[in-house]
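Record 1 of the preview.
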Amino acid sequence: MKLSKEELKKAFQEEQYICGEEIIIPSYLALELEKPLLITGEPGVGKTEIAKVLSKVFDTELIRLQCYEGLDENKALYEWNYQKQLINIQINKDNKAQDNLEQDIFSEEYLLERPLLKAIKADKRPVLLIDEIDKTDEEFEAFLFEMLSDFQVSIPELGTVKAKQRPIVVLTSNANRELSDGLKRRCIFLYIDLPSIDKEVEIIRTKVPGIGKELSHQIAAAISYLRHNLDFKKKPSISETLDWAQALMSLDADRLSPELIRKTQSLIFKTKNDLDVFKELGAGQLSKEIKTKSS
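->
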């Protein structure tokens, strides 16, 4: 199924992903050119969500490879089920007809598919999410972009396995390290910035049904002020904004007050350092800044 740019934009809206052409156009081009989409930006701005939205739009499986330090080819691609192989060997150890035993235990029945091989072998074009690629090392990255070029893998015991169709590939990065030029050349690049106040209000009102206009604007104004004026280790993301909005709704709040801000501050800040930074400003001063922005 192919979608026009306008159809893709409408599909994102139907999945309640609020964005403009700065996100739609790179996403559309990645689909049209069948190239991986490399998304960078602050944690919590909606990078991973794009892969989830695409899997819903195309009604297909989302296959996720969560990256971490030390991830290697075996964990990402395939492994042999050594325990099952050993059991088979033990069962047949007294069987004189063992000529085909080695061939049997290296058949597909004993193959453990990891996300990359699973995406290649999928009957229906899946969405392959390679999440937080910046957490891996350069050696794994080199293996990855070579595989992404051909979408095939060679398994010594079975031969070459080629993809029936190219998966829709989304890679995300929090920019913990610089990615290689080789990987970037193979991808369509998309940077997602933190939203403006107006856009964040729209996101809040879409994701938190029933929230009042005044409260949603005060939340967005408060988060914007905190991001741009205080030196946090982790700036509040859209995820924290939505958690805060839902918490305030559960407390039947219709507007922010210093007391409510103090009671719910743990929804916004995730480190003691950031809590200490906020305490220096104070909930009362933040409440005054919100009123200034609203006036």
